[in-house]
Design brief:
168 residues, alpha+beta, globular, 60s Ribosomal Protein L30, Chain: A, 5 helices
């Protein structure tokens, strides 16, 4: 068995005005609701951070990605709390004989700035995964006005996760 595994996760969601003006859902990142007039257009709750973390964990163990495990064509996942996806990925990681060492996430979002909520997000993700907060890093970046993300029309997240074997 390989001693360490690295996984990369990525997600992007278009942002739109909240109803009744648009089709966006409330903005949730890392399980933390952030008040903002726009939110993700998504089948589930659209938590791009949890989606990217889920894919990083699944990728590290060579499992199917979030879209194959939880297809947006399945009505069961309409408005689904992304914690469900993350908990399933964490279960699969444990079942495969690995444990999360740490993860590093970059949330690219022009507005709102996530700096004031980063510690809440770290705490939330650490709690969901049952690990120490010091194993979770989340940082916010803007896109400096470039492309849909920089124009405030999308949120993008990149995550790298390191797993270690739990088998002696």
């Amino acid at each position: 068995m390989t001693m360490f595994r690295i996984g990369h996760g990525y997600d992007l969601h278009r942002l739109d005005a909240l109803p009744p003006k648009g089709g966006g859902r409330p903005l949730v990142l890392g399980g933390v609701r952030i008040e903002h007039p726009t939110g993700p257009v998504a089948h589930s709750d659209g938590d791009a951070l949890l989606h990217a973390v889920t894919d990083a964990l699944l990728g590290a163990i060579g499992a199917p990605d979030i879209g194959r495990l939880f297809p947006d064509s399945d009505p069961l996942h309409d408005a689904q709390d992304s914690k469900v996806f993350l908990c399933e990925a964490a279960r699969r990681v444990r079942e495969a004989g690995y444990a999360l060492v740490n993860l590093d996430a970059t949330v690219v979002l022009e507005r709102p700035r996530i700096g004031p909520r980063v510690e809440d997000m770290r705490r939330s993700v650490a709690t969901m995964l049952g690990i120490s907060m010091d194993a979770i890093n989340i940082k916010g970046k803007s896109h400096e006005g470039v492309d849909a993300v920089g124009e405030g029309r999308a949120v993008e997240v990149h995550v790298v996760a390191l797993l270690a074997s739990t088998m002696g």
